[in-house]
Write a structure and sequence with these properties.
- Helices cover about 35% and strands about 15% of the residues.
- It is α+β, with helices and mostly antiparallel strands and about 160 residues long.
- The protein has two domains: about 5-80, Ubiquitin-like (UB roll) (Roll); about 85-155, [2Fe-2S]-binding domain (DNA polymerase, domain 1), CATH 1.10.150.
- Strands 2-1-5-3-4 form a five-stranded mixed beta sheet, with helices on one face.
- Strand 1 (about 5-10) and strand 2 (about 15-20) form a beta hairpin.
- Helix 2 packs across helix 3 (about 105-120) and helix 2 (about 85-95) packs across helix 5.
- The N and C termini lie far apart (about 50 Å).
- The structure holds FE2/S2 (inorganic) cluster (FES) (2 copies).
Amino acid sequence: MKQHNIQFWLNGEKVSLQVEPSDVLLDVLRGKLGIKSPKAGCDRGDCGTCTVLMNGKTIRSCLALAVEADGAEIVTLEGANSRKWTQRLQKTFHEKNAFQCGFCAPGVILSATELLENNSRPTTHDIKEAIAGNLCRCTGYEPIVEAIEETVKGK
Ligand code: FES
Ligand code: FES
């Protein structure tokens, strides 16, 4: 199959690589670029563990083709230092022990980043809605919601 040259910004750095038209973004991030925070949970768009930011919006990288990233800005948890809210969320979640196994953590933090970048005074309902697509098997969500609320208060 004919390979495509793509270029995009990944956590602030420009990357260029060749991909197959059918290559999935999640596989390229993990397999070719060494980015391990987005994970394959369900591989069909249901769980949110593969969440990344593309041009400031969360996407399911298991459902995106790598060629769709051409020219885009992609942010993963490895690039937390480049986003004010991502950095603050990560710190609060750590301080509050908001996660247990942590498998859902990168996706939850990036969904919360998207929320706070667009609404720095979210209600509890806004927070729950923002993370509704990120499944967590361990916490019952309460500590996650509280940690996001704490992050907002500490701004
Ligand atoms: S692995 Fe992408 S949504 Fe579950
Ligand atoms: S902390 Fe285990 S899945 Fe969320």
